[in-house]
Write a structure and sequence with these properties.
The structure holds two protein chains of two kinds. Helices cover 43% and strands 27% of the residues of chain A. Chain A contains three helices and five strands. Chain A has a three-stranded antiparallel beta sheet. In chain A, a hairpin with a 3-residue loop joins strand 1 and strand 2. Chain B is α+β, with helices and mostly antiparallel strands. In chain B, 41% of the residues lie in helices and 29% in strands. Chain B is built from three helices and five strands; from the N terminus they run ααβββββα. In chain B, the strands form two sheets. A three-stranded antiparallel beta sheet of chain B has the order 1-2-5. In chain B, strands 3-4 form a two-stranded antiparallel sheet. Classes of the chains: A alpha+beta, B alpha+beta. The interface between A and B is large, with 60 and 55 residues.
């Protein structure tokens, strides 16, 4: 089962005791705060979970896979996520070499 | 932005709540995301992105100090893919 914003809101309602409206808004605000920081060029470091960082990519040649036509991939800024050691070991512990 | 700054920013958005509520919310969200990934479940946050696990097959590595071969077992590593809104907002137009 995939975890969604609705699941997280339900959790805040049950565990933190926010009302339904606040729980939904809190989940939305949580991700919006992270987007705002990244948008302004600031990395986000959530200790125990991981870091969201920004990388600048310069223009590089690309190709339309359908037509084979060459088109440049424009310079851009992208988000990368680096899981913390804690998250990585939790994943390895409970979900080691087992196939997905 | 660090976790504690995130908590302060969230508390400021909800003047009717106490800072502790924001703190508990951040903790609950991150714990739940961690637990889900740890059991191999995907996380899909519309407008933000998705988290899933990538499989790394077993390989023969080397101890960089001694140069001896070591078997590195297969494992899964967390992977994040930015969603459309995040991608567009972060990209320098």
């Amino acid at each position: 089962m995939t975890l969604t914003k609705a699941d997280l809101a339900e959790l805040l309602f049950e565990q933190v005791g926010l009302n339904k409206r606040e729980a939904k808004d809190m989940v939305e605000a949580f991700f919006e705060e992270i987007r705002v920081a990244l948008e302004s060029g600031e990395p986000v470091k959530l200790s125990g979970f991981g870091n969201f960082e920004l990388r600048k990519k310069s223009e590089r040649p690309g190709r339309n896979p359908k037509t084979g036509e060459e088109i440049p991939i424009t310079a851009r800024r992208v988000v990368t996520f680096h899981a913390s050691q804690k998250l990585k070991s939790k994943v390895e512990e409970t979900y080691g070499g087992a196939s997905a | 932005m660090t976790k504690s700054e995130l908590i302060i920013n969230l508390a400021a958005r909800f003047p009717q709540l106490v800072v502790k509520d924001a703190e508990l919310s951040v903790k609950a969200i991150l714990d739940s995301m961690t637990d889900n990934l740890a059991t191999g479940e995907r996380i899909e946050i519309r407008g933000f992105g998705s988290f899933s696990l990538n499989y790394r097959p077993p390989r023969v590595g080397r101890n960089p100090k001694t140069g001896s071969k070591v078997q590195v077992p297969a494992k899964h590593v967390p992977h994040f893919k930015a969603g459309k809104e995040l991608r567009e907002r972060v990209d320098l137009a």
